[in-house]
Amino acid sequence: MNTDVKDRAPRNRTLTLDADERERLSKKLLRPPLQVNMSLLTDQIICGNSINLMSELPARLVDLLILDCPYNLTKTFGFENFREKSSQEYERWFESWFVKVLPALKTTSSLYVCGDWKCSAAIYNVLDRHVIIRNRITWEREKGRGANANWKNASEDVWFATFSDEYYFNVEAVKLKRRVLAPYRENGKPKDWDASVDGSFRLTHPSNLWTDLTVPFWSMPENTDHPTQKPEKLFAKMILASSREDDLVFDPFLGSGTSAAVARKLKRRFLAVEQDETYACLAVKRVELAERDPAIQGYSEGVFWERNTLSLQMRQSRSPSVCQSDFFESSVSSATKIGS
Ligand SMILES: C[S@@+](CC[C@H](N)C(=O)[O-])C[C@H]1O[C@@H](n2cnc3c(N)ncnc32)[C@H](O)[C@@H]1O
């Protein structure tokens, strides 16, 4: 995959790699065979085939598993193609490696598995046989390709599951700051909302319908040329709700590095695998950048904000990180990354 500097508009902030960077960053990648030494497996990106590696992982290592494997679509990732299969074949493929990753999970671990309407049922069937499914999150992709003879596909699923009934979930860490349209008072006092010069706001419990996400596009500093890059905000919700600081997040299909960058921003450890070297190098670059700027678009002051509230966040923010990231939220984005 070529992510070398192309002709791009001046405001285009897509992360790229030049030849020197690529050489430097590729030296930071671990490569199989793995030396199974726990200290080597922290904050590392492995460049290789995760399916071959899964049985090499130490037992009971992982606190949080994020799975964003190829969906059941024909799609090119770097030099590799994923070919669409029948739903039954996809289910068999998924299960063949999923069972190998299970021994690496702690008994208290949580899992989030991304999918779309087409592969979600197959994923459900496999999860249901091996772990405890807790919920299905549906998130709205702001954009999607229109279709003439079908409904536009503008949503994706994330299955939330746990290994056992003993698991960590921090709802306070993932509250949403929402504008209150009809502020209700009881005995003259605001009921569960706060007034500010910008209006009335309430912190709400997050539901399993997420409509506050923006798929990365050219003017966002997290954007890369990866065809199915997920928003940092999406993974931030999973990581904040289902892990503690210093916990280990494992992502065997890392892509452009979203989970690793967010783990670093939120002070979690990570281990990740990506088979395409260019994407793996981009991921290392994002982790390095995360150290300098831990801002996550749409998350500040310990709460998640609705879309297109950047100016409000900046006004209400006491921390400079919202400004530092200098991101743009736009309702005129040209987001084109469709499906995994
Ligand atoms: C859906 S994308 C992940 C996108 C990622 N969440 C992000 O935000 O950039 C899946 C990734 O898995 C990689 N991949 C597919 N099969 C793999 C394998 N067996 N081992 C390692 N990586 C693999 C692909 O190259 C692709 O980058």
Task: Give the radius of gyration.
Answer: 20 Å
The secondary-structure element order is HEHEEEHEHEEEEEEEEHEHEHEEHH
Major sheet characteristics: 8 strands, mixed
Contiguous helical run count:
9
What is the highest CATH level, the class of the domain at 19-169 and 227-296? Alpha Beta
What's the overall average pLDDT, rounded?
89
Task: Give the second-level CATH assignment, the architecture of the domain at 19-169 and 227-296.
Answer: 3-Layer(aba) Sandwich
Low-confidence stretches: 323-334
The named CATH superfamily of the domain at 19-169 and 227-296? Vaccinia Virus protein VP39
**Assembly classification:** single chain
* CATH topology name of the domain at 19-169 and 227-296: Rossmann fold
Give the bound compounds: S-adenosylmethionine
Sheet-strand content, in percent, reads 15-25%
Tell me, briefly, the overall form: globular
Distance between the termini: 16 Å
Report the structural category: alpha/beta
Q: Explain this structure to me?
A:
The protein is α/β, with parallel strands linked by helices and 340 residues long. It has a domain at 19-169 and 227-296: Vaccinia Virus protein VP39 (Rossmann fold), CATH 3.40.50. It has nine helices and 17 strands. It has helices at residues 19-26, 50-53, 87-101, 120-130, 232-242, 258-265, 277-292, 310-316, 321-324, and strands at residues 44-47, 62-67, 75-77, 80-82, 105-115, 132-140, 155-162, 176-179, 185-186, 189-190, 194-196, 199-204, 209-210, 248-251, 269-274, 299-300, 303-305. The strands form four sheets. The protein has an eight-stranded mixed β-sheet with strand order 1-15-14-2-5-7-6-13. Strands 11-12-8-17-16 form a five-stranded mixed β-sheet. The chain has a two-stranded antiparallel ribbon with strand order 3-4. Helix 6 (258-265) links the parallel strand 14 and strand 15 (269-274). Helix 3 (87-101) packs parallel to helix 4 and helix 5 (232-242) packs across helix 6. It is globular and about 65 Å long. The model is unreliable at 323-334 (pLDDT under 50). It binds S-adenosylmethionine. The site of S-adenosylmethionine (SAM) has 23 residues, from helix 2 and strand 15. S-adenosylmethionine binds next to helix 2 and strand 15.
